[in-house]
Amino acid sequence: MVAPTLAAAQARLAAVDARAYARTRNALDGAVTGLSPWITHGVLTLPQVLAGIAAAQPADQRIDGQHKLVFELGWRGYFQHVWSHRGDAILRSLHEGPLPDGAYARGVPLDVREARTGLPVIDQAVRTLYATGTLHNHARLWLASYLVHLRKVHWRSGAEWLIGHLLDGDVASNHLSWQWVAGTSSHKPYLFNADNVACHAPPAWHSPGTVLDVPYELLDRIARLPRPVPTQPLPQGVEEPPLLSSPPAALEFTSPDAALLQGRDIWLVHPWALGDLPAELPADTVVLGLVVNEVHNLRPWSAARWQFVGQRMAELTPHRWRATARDWRQVLQGARSVQTTGNLHLQRTLDTFATSRPAEALFPEVDRPCTSFSQWWTRVSRAPSPALLAALAPPRSGEPHESIDHPPARPGDRRPRWHRP
User: Fold this and answer.
1) C-alpha distances in Å from residue 263, one per residue of 251, 269, 285, 384
2) Ligand-binding site membership of 169 (annotated)
3) CATH number of the domain that 340 lies in?
4) Which end of the chain has less neighbouring CB within 10 Å, N or C?
5) How far apart are alpha carbons 75 and 86 in whole angstroms?
6) Are 17 and 119 found together in one domain?
7) Any binding-site annotation on 78?
8) 351 part of a folded domain
9) DSSP code per residue over 322-345
10) Do residue 258 and residue 216 come from a single domain?
11) Apex CA 364: angle with CA 394 and CA 48, to 5°?
């Protein structure tokens, strides 16, 4: 499992080979960064990620604004942009897909959840998800495409199932990627076949002679038919790990203690803000670890994800509490000030009892909502943010800094980077 510590994140940063990443990132055994759990939970910011990777590269392999890593980090920035403008609308189909919403079933089939569909690519993906809490971007796309277009499962059901098991589960990136696959936020459904799997995955994932071993034209017709494909589930699979709405007892979260907070300055660390504490906090600031019950009743997590969050939170404070939003409001009333780092996963609740500082951003804010990644990328490229320019490797003597003009289109560029990066 992924270690939740800042030291582990920094070691992973230093080990990234940017050249190998650009060349092999689409392969399941490619040189992906593996940084997404620390990014999702705010242990690392995007400027820290890019700056750390850039600093670790050889002098003759500096990262500029057109490097694939910058482009892929942009997908996370774009998804957050859409969520900030569309709000809860991203939880509904942004437009109709190949079939009306009512044509899709609710609930992920048991044979998928137990990794016994008989399709190696799907069963391997589910087993990997449960065993590691992570999943390569390509595998996420395949799993989503199979569920939506072949099994006729509504994308929202698949998105809610997957996010609970992912260490890096982020509502914007996860749900909007499912919508992209489903064709409810894009112009056409994302489809894959056995040849695509053979091109990007190890042999154990290959699925020749299955329902996937057909041309794309046939898959497109299947996606537009209301009937799910016939299945022959295997008799045995794996047990799905339980999803928990509260931290395991071993992580020692307790109920709030109002007496500790009277007249004090409070800094809240929450599951999406687990970076180092601000250097300017007064020495007597009380640092609290916050879990809001309603948030996790809505989207429970695997024990592995709770462990990741709980261990990192314990590095930051001995005071880790869980309570309802109402109880948090009451217990924090006696504090002199309450501050935290804002995050869309928790913002509505935080706004009722804390002052939120914006998280450090890599890309400039775009005020007008963008309907596509390319539109958003064009706008952020016009005036790169100081954070982006600072994160990139410095130019060679006498050479101007490169812009981040939209890179030339390539066959793989329209695919979203679900795992960032």
Assistant:
1) 28, 19, 11, 42
2) yes
3) 3.40.50
4) N
5) 16
6) no
7) yes
8) yes
9) EE-HHHHHHHTTT-SEEEEE--TT
10) no
11) 50
Q: For every one of its 421 residues, what pLDDT tens digit does the chain have, with 9 covering 90 and above?
A: 677 888 899 999 999 999 999 999 999 999 999 999 999 999 999 999 999 999 888 888 888 888 899 989 999 999 999 999 999 999 999 999 999 999 999 999 999 999 999 999 999 999 999 999 999 999 999 999 999 999 999 999 999 999 999 999 999 999 999 999 999 998 899 999 999 999 999 999 999 999 999 999 999 999 999 999 999 999 999 999 999 999 999 999 999 999 999 999 999 999 999 999 999 999 999 999 999 999 999 999 999 999 999 999 999 999 999 999 999 999 999 999 999 999 999 999 999 999 999 999 999 999 999 999 999 999 998 888 888 888 885 544 444 333 333 333 333 445 565 554 5
Is 130 labelled a binding residue?
A: no
**Close Cβ partners of 109 (under 8 Å, ≥ 6 residues apart):** 151, 153, 231
**Is residue 72 part of an annotated ligand binding site?**
yes
Q: Is 73 annotated as a binding residue?
A: yes
Residue 80 tokens read as 């957050």
